[in-house]
Amino acid sequence: MPHHELLRNWDRFCQLLDQVPKHQQTQIQILCQYYVEHHVILINDLLSVSITQLEKLGNLTTAADVIYSFETFSRELNKKLTFSTKQFLHKSLENIAHYNAWLKDNTEFVVN
After folding, report:
1. Is residue 10 part of a domain?
2. Distance in angstroms (rounded) separating the CA atoms of residues 92 and 110
3. Using CA atoms, how far apart are residues 47 and 88, in angstroms rounded to an integer?
4. Among 32, 45, 48, 103, which lies 20 to 30 A Cα-Cα from 6?
Protein backbone atom coordinates (compact mmCIF):
# COMPACT_ATOMS: atom_id res chain seq x y z
CA MET A 1 0.00 0.00 0.00
CA PRO A 2 1.39 3.42 -0.93
CA HIS A 3 0.38 4.99 2.38
CA HIS A 4 2.53 2.47 4.29
CA GLU A 5 5.50 3.49 2.16
CA LEU A 6 4.67 7.13 2.91
CA LEU A 7 4.74 6.41 6.64
CA ARG A 8 8.07 4.57 6.35
CA ASN A 9 9.53 7.40 4.28
CA TRP A 10 8.19 9.98 6.74
CA ASP A 11 9.83 8.15 9.65
CA ARG A 12 13.13 7.95 7.77
CA PHE A 13 12.90 11.62 6.78
CA CYS A 14 12.39 12.63 10.43
CA GLN A 15 15.30 10.44 11.54
CA LEU A 16 17.58 12.04 8.97
CA LEU A 17 16.54 15.52 10.08
CA ASP A 18 17.66 14.61 13.58
CA GLN A 19 20.98 13.26 12.26
CA VAL A 20 22.10 16.17 10.09
CA PRO A 21 25.86 16.32 10.59
CA LYS A 22 27.59 19.41 11.93
CA HIS A 23 30.40 20.66 9.74
CA GLN A 24 33.58 22.28 10.98
CA GLN A 25 33.52 24.84 8.18
CA THR A 26 30.97 27.54 8.95
CA GLN A 27 30.19 28.16 5.28
CA ILE A 28 29.18 24.54 4.68
CA GLN A 29 27.21 24.41 7.93
CA ILE A 30 25.17 27.47 6.97
CA LEU A 31 24.45 26.06 3.51
CA CYS A 32 23.44 22.72 5.04
CA GLN A 33 21.04 24.53 7.35
CA TYR A 34 19.48 26.32 4.36
CA TYR A 35 19.29 23.00 2.54
CA VAL A 36 17.49 21.24 5.40
CA GLU A 37 15.19 24.21 5.98
CA HIS A 38 14.12 24.21 2.34
CA HIS A 39 13.56 20.46 2.37
CA VAL A 40 11.18 20.83 5.30
CA ILE A 41 9.38 23.77 3.70
CA LEU A 42 9.02 21.87 0.44
CA ILE A 43 7.70 18.72 2.12
CA ASN A 44 5.24 20.83 4.10
CA ASP A 45 4.10 22.56 0.91
CA LEU A 46 3.66 19.19 -0.80
CA LEU A 47 1.51 17.94 2.06
CA SER A 48 -0.55 21.14 2.17
CA VAL A 49 -1.30 21.03 -1.56
CA SER A 50 -2.06 17.30 -1.33
CA ILE A 51 -4.47 17.81 1.57
CA THR A 52 -6.27 20.62 -0.24
CA GLN A 53 -6.72 18.55 -3.39
CA LEU A 54 -7.74 15.39 -1.51
CA GLU A 55 -10.38 17.35 0.39
CA LYS A 56 -11.89 18.40 -2.95
CA LEU A 57 -12.27 14.81 -4.22
CA GLY A 58 -15.71 14.43 -2.65
CA ASN A 59 -17.04 17.35 -4.67
CA LEU A 60 -15.83 16.14 -8.08
CA THR A 61 -18.55 14.84 -10.35
CA THR A 62 -16.89 14.03 -13.68
CA ALA A 63 -13.74 12.40 -14.95
CA ALA A 64 -12.71 15.80 -16.32
CA ASP A 65 -12.99 17.24 -12.79
CA VAL A 66 -10.64 14.57 -11.47
CA ILE A 67 -8.15 15.15 -14.28
CA TYR A 68 -8.32 18.92 -13.76
CA SER A 69 -7.83 18.46 -10.02
CA PHE A 70 -4.69 16.42 -10.63
CA GLU A 71 -3.42 19.01 -13.10
CA THR A 72 -4.01 21.72 -10.49
CA PHE A 73 -2.14 19.61 -7.93
CA SER A 74 0.81 19.19 -10.32
CA ARG A 75 0.87 22.87 -11.28
CA GLU A 76 0.81 24.00 -7.65
CA LEU A 77 3.65 21.62 -6.75
CA ASN A 78 5.67 22.88 -9.68
CA LYS A 79 5.19 26.49 -8.53
CA LYS A 80 6.23 25.61 -4.98
CA LEU A 81 9.27 23.67 -6.16
CA THR A 82 10.37 26.50 -8.44
CA PHE A 83 9.92 29.09 -5.69
CA SER A 84 11.78 26.97 -3.14
CA THR A 85 14.65 26.37 -5.56
CA LYS A 86 14.94 30.10 -6.28
CA GLN A 87 14.92 30.91 -2.56
CA PHE A 88 17.59 28.32 -1.79
CA LEU A 89 19.84 29.50 -4.61
CA HIS A 90 19.37 33.14 -3.62
CA LYS A 91 20.26 32.47 0.02
CA SER A 92 23.18 30.28 -0.98
CA LEU A 93 24.65 32.77 -3.42
CA GLU A 94 24.14 35.60 -0.95
CA ASN A 95 25.97 33.59 1.70
CA ILE A 96 28.80 32.79 -0.71
CA ALA A 97 29.12 36.49 -1.60
CA HIS A 98 29.46 37.35 2.11
CA TYR A 99 32.05 34.60 2.50
CA ASN A 100 34.02 35.85 -0.51
CA ALA A 101 33.97 39.39 0.89
CA TRP A 102 35.24 38.03 4.21
CA LEU A 103 38.04 36.18 2.41
CA LYS A 104 39.12 39.35 0.61
CA ASP A 105 39.18 41.28 3.86
CA ASN A 106 41.00 38.61 5.86
CA THR A 107 43.54 37.00 3.55
CA GLU A 108 46.48 38.19 1.52
CA PHE A 109 46.01 35.78 -1.37
CA VAL A 110 42.63 35.64 -3.00
CA VAL A 111 41.94 33.58 -6.08
CA ASN A 112 39.06 34.81 -8.21
Report:
1. no
2. 20
3. 20
4. 32
Domain range for 40 is 21-101
Within a domain: 39: yes
The answer to the question of residue 4 being in a domain is no
Is residue 100 left, alpha or beta, with left meaning phi > 0 and alpha meaning psi from -120 to 50? alpha
Nearest partner of 56 among 42, 72, 44, judged by Cα: 72
Under 8 Å between Cβ of 20 and 51: no
The reported pTM is 0.71
CA distances from residue 106 to 26, 27, 33 in whole angstroms, order as listed? 15, 15, 24
How many domains, in total, are found in the chain? 1
Q: Give the span between the Cα atoms of 36 and 20, in whole angstroms.
A: 8
pLDDT tens track for 25-69:
887 888 888 889 888 999 999 999 999 999 999 999 999 999 999
